[in-house]
Amino acid sequence: MKMSLLSSNVQKRRDMILNGNILNTLLFLSLPTILMGMVSSLIPLSDGLFLNHTSGYLIAAAVGFGQPIINILNALSLGLGVASMAIVGQINGTGDLEKVKKVSTQIMVFAFFIGILVAPTSIIFASIVSQTISPDIAHQVFLYLSLYSTVIPLLFMAAIYNAIKNATGQPEATLIRIIILLLLKIIFNTLFLAIFHLGIIGAVMASLCSYVIIAIWMFYDLFIKKSETQLVLKGYYPDFALLKKVLVLALPSMITYSLINFGFFLINMEVEKYGAIVLTAQTIASNINTMCFTLPSSIGTTVTTMVSMNIGAGKPENAEKSFKYGSLVSLVISFVLIIIFLPSSNFLVRLFQNHEEIVKLASHSLKIYTFSIIGFGLFMVAQGAFIGLGRTRLPLLMGLLRVWLIRYIFIIITKKWLGVDSVFWGNLVSNWVAGFLFYYIVTKTPWVSVIKKDKNSI
């Protein structure tokens, strides 16, 4: 079946996913998701470039240190998003668009209010963390985390928007959103960092202004624009039975992502002990490597969509094939990225900094990080398959295994001999072990939804 990439006909997308060639469909749906991954990875890259060139490495280090804490809170929205994608995707698989719209509206409103409740937590984190780190960056970290609380509710809205669009086979909508966000971030970073030189305050202002505009655009796209899946707020009343089901399904993923990012925060605490130069180098390497990690892991989102819809339509064989093809595509992308990024690591680092000590350390760590892509890509595809089945508890355990049981313990045990290198090698070891182990577990898992028995009551 031929279809334009920008076609938004949900019924045609559903038919393509359920009845079309699986590999072609996977590649077709993955293209906007991969492009979205590329664009989204450019956002921290552009932020890092502006911060390093306009505000210095101390400000860049403070933002790099604070980012995992922001991600702990944002992880709640991502966990809610993956559960929403599984539920909406399986309902969409049955062809009931009215129920898709009802459930999507309930989740979007619920998520936004959860974001408002969670936002003040960022200020609490800021007060606690700033008391325990180097005075060189403590005040800047406090400012960044406190001010960023204003952005948190909008992150929740964005996560659910992505979930709804992916679950209805419209990943190009999320691509358009992220492209607009990148352009806005560049414009506002130029204004607040390059022109007004506002430092940490400017970095937060750039994010806030960008997300406010994006939120207005998302509201228009979901609630005002005429489409098959246009949501309606009129007559809205919370469906507590539905929201309870969503929350129960989302809770494992919310805990997973939060604990994983808390693990990254603890790792940053270990790196911070070596000083701001080392922390900046590690942040630069991570920002560059985000592009590598995002591309193969983007396949996992498409796998979730295809698995959930095929399971909802009673086609478990197609769901399993979607997972296997997704794993293969992820591996191919990983090898291509290694070939491209490995020889260019020094050049990429110098785009951020010319401080020789930072360049040397960041280039060294980037070369180790790059080989982690293979295991990470497999991990994310396997996670996507489990989420599509509604099995969100095992990803919780595997996420903890990857970051805590393998990586963090590896760092603690080996730092005596490896020093800061223990962080870089811990990344490699944890992703490979967790990725291949998770892949094996998926191959032994029945292709049956655990939320199928509750579907009629959703």
Automatic annotation (TrEMBL):
Membrane protein topology class: Multi-pass membrane protein
UniProt keywords, alphabetically: Antiport, Cell membrane, Ion transport, Membrane, Transmembrane, Transmembrane helix, Transport
Transmembrane portions of the chain: 21-45, 57-88, 109-129, 141-163, 175-195, 201-224, 245-268, 325-348, 368-389, 396-418, 424-442
GO BP terms, alphabetized: monoatomic ion transport
Entry-linked Pfam families: MatE
Official protein name in the record: Multidrug-efflux transporter
A GO MF term: xenobiotic transmembrane transporter activity
Principal location: membrane
InterPro entries linked to this entry: MATE_fam (IPR002528), MATE_MdtK (IPR050222), MdtK-like (IPR048279)
Top-level lineage group: Bacteria
GO cellular component, one term: plasma membrane
Subcellular location: Cell membrane
Lineage, broadest ranks: Bacteria, Fusobacteriati, Fusobacteriota, Fusobacteriia, Fusobacteriales
